[in-house]
Write a structure and sequence with these properties.
The chain is of the alpha/beta class. The protein has one domain: Rossmann fold (3-Layer(aba) Sandwich). 47% of the residues lie in helices and 15% in strands. The strands form 2 sheets. It has a 5-stranded mixed β-sheet with strand order 6-5-7-9-8, sandwiched between helices. Strand 3, helix 3 and strand 4 form a beta-alpha-beta unit. Helix 4 crosses helix 9 and helix 6 packs across helix 7. The chain is globular. The model has no long low-confidence stretch (mean pLDDT 94). Pfam families: Asp_Glu_race. InterPro entries: Asp/Glu/hydantoin_racemase, Hydantoin_racemase-like, Iso_Racemase_Enz_sf. Belongs to the HyuE racemase family.
């Protein structure tokens, strides 16, 4: 890591979408993420081809391997942090064990910040397919007593892409999302997280978006600012990921074997 105060600290933001196929979303995501960077930081949004479009565990696995490979590439190219910008964040633990730069997960950072805003948290995901994925994710992060519910809208990726430019479709999707919030209020939920980059970006223009006093949390700025904080802490006192035996950096042969398999 360079020490010059005049340099820009670079963050690699890894989307799981295809910049070509998902152009309406990817272009807006890039503009939004880049605009969140504090002075002295540059956030570069990267996609992957093919993207994660099939809503299946095999697609999640494939994309997780690409994400880990890209985290390694980010470190080699001199980036200072890496963000997995897919809420389910497959490959998060493996990426952290593969590189020495900070690795931030969109889902983990958003849920942890939500714990500072309210006692009971819920997720609303973009498809019923992802409900068990998120339930497993919640357990993995040890947040079962805080993230108490996962609900889903039933929308296609194409719907989100169109809703960015079609006001009537946007209104309908916002209403469907709000309908998922109402039963959560009866459970005493304080914070609702749109579990995915698509709904986070779609509703980003809603100032103080909420219902019945519950907060709807946009995780995109949370993840970017968490990455910036991780870089600052590393510069300040060397704070980084645990390197206990289960999280140790790979040996050179182990790293080579992984990259060769890709």
């Amino acid at each position: 890591m360079a020490t010059g105060e005049d340099r820009s600290w670079r963050i690699w933001y890894q989307s799981f979408t295809d910049p070509g196929v998902d152009a309406p979303y990817f272009g807006r995501l890039t503009s939004r993420i880049e605009g969140l960077a504090d002075p002295g930081f540059e956030v570069v949004v990267h996609g992957m081809t093919p993207g994660d479009r099939h809503l299946h565990r095999l697609s999640e696995l494939r994309c997780s391997m690409q994400a880990v490979r890209n985290a390694i590439a980010a470190q080699e190219e001199g980036y200072d942090a890496f963000v997995i910008g897919h809420f389910q964040e497959p490959g998060l633990a493996e990426a952290r064990a593969a590189v020495d730069i900070p690795v931030i997960g969109l889902g983990e950072s958003t849920m942890l910040h939500a714990c500072t805003l309210g006692r009971k948290i819920a997720l609303v995901t973009i498809s019923p397919v992802f409900v068990p994925y998120h339930e497993e994710q919640i357990v993995r992060h040890g947040l079962q007593q805080r993230v108490i519910a996962v609900r889903a809208v039933d929308a296609e990726v194409a719907d989100f892409n169109r809703a960015f430019t079609e006001p009537e479709l946007y209104r309908r999707m916002k209403e469907e999302f709000s309908q998922q919030l109402r039963p959560l209020l009866e459970l005493g939920v304080d914070v609702v997280i749109p579990a995915g980059g698509y709904p986070m970006l779609l509703f980003a223009g809603e100032r103080s978006f909420g219902l019945g006093g519950a907060v709807v949390l946009d995780g995109l700025p949370v993840a970017v600012m968490a990455a910036e904080t991780a870089v600052r802490l590393r510069r300040l006192n060397g704070t980084g990921a645990s390197r206990a035996p289960g999280s140790a950096l790979p040996s050179e042969p182990a790293l080579r074997e992984f990259l060769d398999a890709m």
